Amino acid sequence: MIPKLNIVPFVSVDHMMKLVLAVGVERFLIELAESIETDFRRWELFDKTPRVASHSREGVIELMPTSDGEVYGFKYVNGHPKNTREGRQTVTAFGVLADVGTGYPVLLTEMTILTALRTAATSAVAAKYLAPKNARTMAIIGNGAQAEFQAMAFKALLGIDKLRLYDIDRTASTKCVRNLAGHGFDMTICSTIEEAMEGAEIVTTVTADKQNATILTDNMVGSGLHINAVGGDCPGKTELHADILKRSDIFVEYPPQTRIEGEIQQLAPDHPVMELWRVIAGQETGRANERQITLFDSVGFAIEDFSALRYVKRQIEQTGLYEELDLLADPDDPRDLFGMLLRAAVAAPTAA
Known about the structure:
It is an enzyme of class 4 (lyase). This protein is α/β, with parallel strands linked by helices. 35% of the residues lie in helices and 24% in strands. It has eleven helices and 17 strands. Strands 9-8-7-10-12-16-14-15 form an eight-stranded parallel beta sheet. Strands 2-3-4-5-6-1-17 form a seven-stranded mixed beta sheet. A two-stranded parallel ribbon has the order 11-13. Strand 8, helix 5 (170-180) and strand 9 form a beta-alpha-beta unit. The longest helix is centred in the middle third of the chain and has 19 residues, at 112-130.
């Protein structure tokens, strides 16, 4: 633990990359998935609220808070699809953990990389309960920044080893093949979505356009398929034709948020959905038969980020991969903050 009260461990992008590689990508995803499952099983303990979002024509900026009563966590995250045209990331993020008893932060970390990992881990956790048994082939529609993480998580947790890739920009698919080379995948770049869907038992849709799109149409979806819908994550941004939703058993993270942001924003407010945590906790059934179409309407929820933050905190305590950040005022007398300021002025060197 950090001995000084004013020091907060900070995990930079560099340290996060070193941490993931030190642990190993697949092991990191497996352990992160275990952390997420553990917290989903105690779902009822958490504060839950839809994320606080500030929307503009260019994108969205969001805060995602939660607490289990002992630890508080939040993530700041944006979504700006136009950013790639300027050489910037579509999604960036950072997160904080704090001790509920004192209010003091105990971790500050980058979450751009960590969000990609936790999104993929959550997708694979859902698929453990919803995908066809012994599935080996996944189509990934949209081969941008999230695609490789999804592939690695599904391989690590479910044994997926055949990928059918499609993106409107073929260079994104070739990038994906290049990055995943040597990781045990049989990969095919497809010219159409229909081609990508051929033989797929799971399909992940993970596109970035901020609009109501129709990535999958009803005629593309056969019985027994598991759909991992990741790209739709804000009002007015969807990927699936509504007819697909009406044929599917739909599983969500937190219904009040998903009904605003997910694929089910296209449906009536009382359309039946199942909460994923209930399936993981054994209270409800996930996949019930081979012909069932299951849909994980994933928008991302704060408890998943909380799980990821707690996992990283445990890892850095073992590895030391962090910096010490002088973030908090720590006067000798807690009531004398102004005196601390004056003493700093006396101690500061004078200009020549």
